[in-house]
Amino acid sequence: MNEGEGEGEGDDTIGEYEGERNKEKQRHGKGRALLPNSDYYSGMYKEGLRDGKGQYVFKGGAQYIGEYKNGMKDGIGRFHYPDGSRYKGEWKEDKRQGKGKYKYAQGDTYEGDWEQDERHGLGTYTYKTSGVAMFGMWEKGKMEGRGKISYPTFTFHGTFLRNMPIGKGRFVFKDYCIQEGHYVHLKDESTKEEDEVVGEEEEKMSPREGYPKGVTAVWRPRKILPYALDLVPPDSKLPPKPPPTPPSTPEPLEEEEKEGEDQRKDSKRSAGGKEGSEEDKSDVKESRSESKKSGEILKQTEDKEELNPILEESGPEETLSPTEDEKTSPELTDTDGEE
């Protein structure tokens, strides 16, 4: 089954529906529907359209589980095809768009960027039977530009045109040697020219099946070099992955801010000269004044504490007037003298 076959969904405003509705009687909220074409949907609706998480089962056996927006697959979702192939990744308006992984029926896989249902951007196509992996830039389903092919025992680094290597390149046999040369495209006599139709093979699953008709790539070796790591073309020539987000700078501590403020004050005083000295004297004077006030308050508090026991023993004010016998008491005489 080709990519995208069987993905079309029926109108979600018709068929038998069971679920929530809004004031306008539109399908809104959680619900499920059996469409006239025998497709089935269960999930969220918004103002009559599939919107949110849901599951759509096609009558032919295909199935989509994921996110919807405005009635279309949009967000993260998984699509299972009747032949066993499947896709998991990002969607945009019913198309595979963004990052995703597609596993084909024969076991091959493509993992990378997608655009409008096609391999487009940086990605890797891996053949299950041979283990060969094609890594590089893709454009409308074809490998184009810089890339590499990794075989079990060696790797080719070079440039590609419609899935085929072309121009200068290097075969790297790890820990053994490096062979430099170039690829040329020649007419393939085994294929009739009339079989070549531009664009006819755009929807093929395998890059090999997408080779142009009537053309073959031939390798022309030029020289062999001893293996050296610095001669291996770095993958950095391909579009680099975005760097990791650096950790956020911690906010300065209060102690650091206070220390910086003290340093600024010291600099200002040094530049001010005499003015700085007068400010220092003023600060000392204010400090002494505050200390003097604190001492007076402390003394008043101590005096008050000494008077409290006497006031507590004396009781209310009306009992403070001494009697005739109490006037001759030495204790009261001393107390009156202190007061």
Structural class: alpha+beta
Q: Strand-and-helix sequence, N→C?
A: EEEEEEEEEEEEEEEEHHH
Strand content: 35-45%
- CATH top-level class of one domain: Mainly Beta
Largest pleated sheet = 16 strands, antiparallel
| Shape summary | flat
Residue share in helices? 10-25%
Report mean pLDDT, rounded to a whole number. 76
Query: Rg from C-alpha positions?
Result: 44 Å
Number of helices: 3
* Alpha-carbon distance between the two ends: 112 Å
* Order of strands in the sheet with most strands: 1-2-3-4-5-6-7-8-9-10-11-12-13-14-15-16
CATH topology of one domain: Histone H3 K4-specific methyltransferase SET7/9 N-terminal domain
CATH architecture of one domain: Single Sheet
Pfam family, one: MORN
GO biological process, one term: axoneme assembly
Keywords: Repeat
Organism: Graphocephala atropunctata
Task: Give the secondary structure arrangement, pairings included.
Elements (H helix, E strand, L loop, with lengths): L15 E6 L5 E8 L5 E7 L2 E9 L5 E7 L2 E9 L5 E7 L2 E9 L5 E7 L2 E9 L6 E7 L2 E9 L4 E7 L2 E10 L3 E11 L27 E12 L27 H19 L1 H41 L15 H9 L1
Antiparallel strand pairs: 1-2, 2-3, 3-4, 4-5, 5-6, 6-7, 7-8, 8-9, 9-10, 10-11, 11-12, 12-13, 13-14, 14-15, 15-16
